[in-house]
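Anyone able to model this chain together with adenosine-5-diphosphoribose?
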Amino acid sequence: MKTKVVIIGAGPSGLLLGQLLHKQGIDNIILERVSADYVLGRIRAGVLEEGFASLLREAGAGERMDIDGEVHDGVEIAVDGKRVRIDLASLTGGKKVIVYGQTELTRDLMDARTLSNQITSYEAVNVEPHDIAGDLPFVSYEKDGQKFKIQCDYIAGCDGFHGVSRKSIPSDHIKEYERVYPGGWLGVLSATPPVNPELVYAHHERGFALCSLRSQSLSRYYIQVGPKEKVEDWSDDRFWQELKRRLPDELADKLITGPSIEKSIAPMRSYVVEPMQYGRLFLLGDAAHIVPPTGAKGLNTAAGDVHTLYSILTKVYAEGRSELTEKYSQTCLRRVWDGERFSWWMSNLLHKFEGKSAFEEKMHKSELDYYLRTETGQKIIADQYVGLPYDEIK
Ligand code: APR
Ligand code: PHB
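re: yes, here you go
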């Protein structure tokens, strides 16, 4: 088999890239380790920057998002029971975010892919990139007990944090940067109306909490939990009680609870690998970087990488400008570090982490007060929450 681009991984990064390339007439094959149903079963964030929404439309998969997605022009931050609304639209000159679940947009991308007749091979095992430093790379894999080999021009590693792509770069060519936070987020999905029409990020002495939503009948709530906590120890009742304790009274009083549809603990990690390319292999999304979920930048940072590689490859194939591929990593990394810094800062600002001195506690309180009380502070939050623009490739 032969194609222009082999894409490893059918998460949002791989599927979005595949559709955008297809629209430009650039053939590609996607290889995914698990089944399509398994991919759709993962519950993840659902706050889209306008840049992501535009890319999804350009990929021909934005129709349902434009009908069912909720446009939010504000977000709330609550500190010890007091609520502050960050008016995203007025603080950023009209920018907004769209609340649309990752499961839904993944399904839309899968449907668009089916219509495009491009090959996607699910349950492809032992996927392995070869000769990435040379001019004739190829990818080998197995499916249903048979071995396959695909020759290609480029390989896009969209296979997440635990994928094979990053591991196939010689370790002396990369540097990793990491911060692992103590504990994680315990999340519950429930078929109940959301407690507030907009998202509420809550800082509380007992720890962080987030009220989010997927639709007017589906809510997503999170509470910060310590490193030793196990999901089995959290009955629905215990979860709702703890969430209520961390929310402002008027929200706690009107919270409608119900049985959890999904309950899991997500770790909090900041991670970046540099550079994000080696020879003809490019890393995108979670394969190259991870952010803690505060600020909802995971999916949106991945979209920046997709935009960059898509812009470069479009010019490579339409104008023969293959030298542009060398700009991939440096272009992505500037925006990646922006997302990393914002997520790290929001996490530190809104969580309760042990081990602070009395002085550091005071600094923390003062920082919260400054950013929420002043318009300048709110503007800084709003500007980054709605997302910074993508860099153009010239
Ligand atoms: N071979 C083939 N596919 C693989 C392999 C492999 N060796 N290893 C992992 N994969 C697949 C996974 O099964 C998964 O479907 O790659 C995909 C990676 O998808 P995500 O982890 O969702 O990563 P990405 O698409 O970059 O996601 C971007 O969305 O899901 C969020 O947390 C994610 O915020 C991030 C954003
Ligand atoms: C979510 O809805 O799952 C969500 C929203 C915002 C975040 C993180 C997760 O910052």
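The mean pLDDT is 97.
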